[in-house]
Amino acid sequence: MVVRDAPTTTLGAGPGFVVRLDAFSGPLDLLLHLLREEQLEISDIPIARIADQFLQAIGELGLNQAADYLDMASRLVRLKAQMLLPRRTDDEGWEDPRAELVRRLLEYQQIREIAIWLGRASERRAAQFARGYLPPPPVLPPPPLALDLLEMLRAIERVIAAIPSPVLHRVVARPLDVEQATRRIEGLLDERAEIGWLEALGERHSIVEVLSTLLALLELARRGVLRLTQHDPFSPMRILRDTTRPAH
Amino acid sequence: MTPLARLIEAALFSAARPLTVEELGALDPDATTADVRVALEQVREHYDFEQHGIELVELAGGHQILTRAVHAAAIERAQFSVRAPKLTAAALETLAVIAYRQPVGRAEIEEIRGVSAGGVLRSLQERGLIEVVGRSEALGRPLLYGTAAAFLELLGLRDLADLPRADELTIALRPHHPEPEGADDAAAYVEAES
Amino acid sequence: MTPLARLIEAALFSAARPLTVEELGALDPDATTADVRVALEQVREHYDFEQHGIELVELAGGHQILTRAVHAAAIERAQFSVRAPKLTAAALETLAVIAYRQPVGRAEIEEIRGVSAGGVLRSLQERGLIEVVGRSEALGRPLLYGTAAAFLELLGLRDLADLPRADELTIALRPHHPEPEGADDAAAYVEAES
User: Fold this and answer.
1) Given this model, what pLDDT does residue B21 score?
2) Which of A96, B87, C67, C194 fits B91 for a cystine, CB–CB 3.0-4.6 Å?
3) Could you tell me if B58 and B114 lie in one domain?
4) Chain C nearest C-alpha distance from B39 (Å)
């Protein structure tokens, strides 16, 4: 919910500190909360302090399982290091390393404002009921068919993808494409909690593909996005979505 | 309308079924059964007197607002309640194969899609989206299918050239290599031609 | 009410979804678009003037009869109808990005919200609030999303122009691909972190 009980407790207050895990809709939300609590300007974030508080917060909130929060934590730590680098005070070419973070926070804050507006609009609409009784539809000849060009094109792509293409064999040695394999695996795990190794591999089983997929799996496992299991020694590998990730 | 009549009208409108006088009483703890009956009568008379397109009817022991029967024919004709049906994924994919490979036989469609295509082909033909455009020279002389005029009309295309070319799609289309057509069907047609 | 207003009232009752002026025109071959608009206005004014418990609302490009908000609590208490469940913060934020940036791909949504969006995109799509509106030209040709018809219905908006304009927001809307912000301000805070 956008209109929710804002966690008002001060971080680091010690034992008895309880915050709903779903209180924050993401690392940017948590970051904005910390800035608000400390009454700090987004345009001038004391990175060192905020980075420490962020790390402390995700530890206390039990969010340290979530890749999205860890990703932000590592960015903050990197920023903290960059801010500590010595530089000359008259250095005109200096770019504030915080600029990108500031931009993202302002952008996110704006989206939050729109989200709150949308939430209120939907609540106003929800207070008005449509007619509850729906008369049974008349028995009539079926109306003209709806055929959508985009749907058609997607079907065409599915069909073409299913055709074993000899063209692909002419392709000269490709570098490993871990990014694409990562996207494919993440896409599959969005749909199902568990997939098999062969599914993760995709349609084509070239050496390049196998290696890319393997590297992607190991990287994703390291980041806590998924877990790799085997029921028995030498049995097929199962790839499980890490259920400790928060639902979005 | 009185406040209670307004509330009762809103409740009857939002409920999915007829509501009894007792049920309607739950809307307002201060309203007696008699109050509810008076309000119901007010709503009914208002609909009749002001010549609304709806009426308050008593049925199944309760009360419900319904559209007047006199409007039924016009509303049915306008078909508001029916959404246009959509093609299944199987039908779309079969149509895709035919659009890009026409003229194409059933065996080739089945080879590409990996499933039998008889039912889908029949229903596409019934809907006028595909038609038989000839016979293959292959053994058994199987029927060849192509898209019909309705296919382009539904997609809003002028002609088949408006479909994206293969190289515009994510994966390049295999060049058409004519395989012995209808090999699977062959046994059934051994005697057909020679 | 005029005969056309009666017919339109009955049709709006039986459809229970927003109907466009064009759809309503199908009710009577003799009625022009202007006739339909006049009749709609008559129904709306009648409901307001006679203080009905229902009202005619303009939303999602059409017209729909809804109960007045003031009756919601009583109707819910009597359990004749329940409010639609609230959307989660994740769903609202994702809708906000899509509404203002459409057509927009998953990567951009995730970049703005700072969290992965697969699950929420799927559920918004299942509820008919968003739909795939095309593919990006970028590598991998990712799907692009836009808001769908149910989005306006759920929010009670007539069209997307009802969304707050950029200058009405306390934080001004920024260009689509903003420059790194605050670079100029940076010099002022050189001492901040040491």
Assistant:
1) 96
2) B87
3) no
4) 12
